[in-house]
Amino acid sequence: MSGTKWHYFSVDPSLTERFLLQISSQAEFDFYVKKGTQMIPDPANFDAVFKGEKDVSVTEYSFNTKQGFIFAVYTKLPVGDTPVTFQIKSTFMHEIQGLRVAPNA
User: Fold this and answer.
1) Among 74, 83, 99, 101, which residue's Cβ finds the most Cβ atoms within 10 Å?
2) CATH classification of 2-102, choosing from 2.40.10, 2.60.120, 2.160.20, 3.10.290?
3) Distance CA 55, CA 73 (A)
4) Could you say which DSSP state residue 33 is in?
5) Which whole number is the average pLDDT over 16-23?
């Protein structure tokens, strides 16, 4: 995927019994997590954040995932630059749901 600013993904509670979620990129990104599936994470409202990473891995042991969660990948992209590409790999039995992209949030 090519990122401009914020990309949001929802993980349903039914998928969180056992999983490995890996996000990687050639450029640094910030990774935000909000427990539950009702509110998206942002810089003021999150349960976990990893900043300036190129690789992040999360499992069912990373935090309490029983209510599902929403995660966001934030890429720092100056106007006019080439979009940052990031890759998401998971062992979820079903596809995770992309919620939305917010290019200028």
Assistant:
1) 74
2) 2.60.120
3) 11
4) E
5) 84
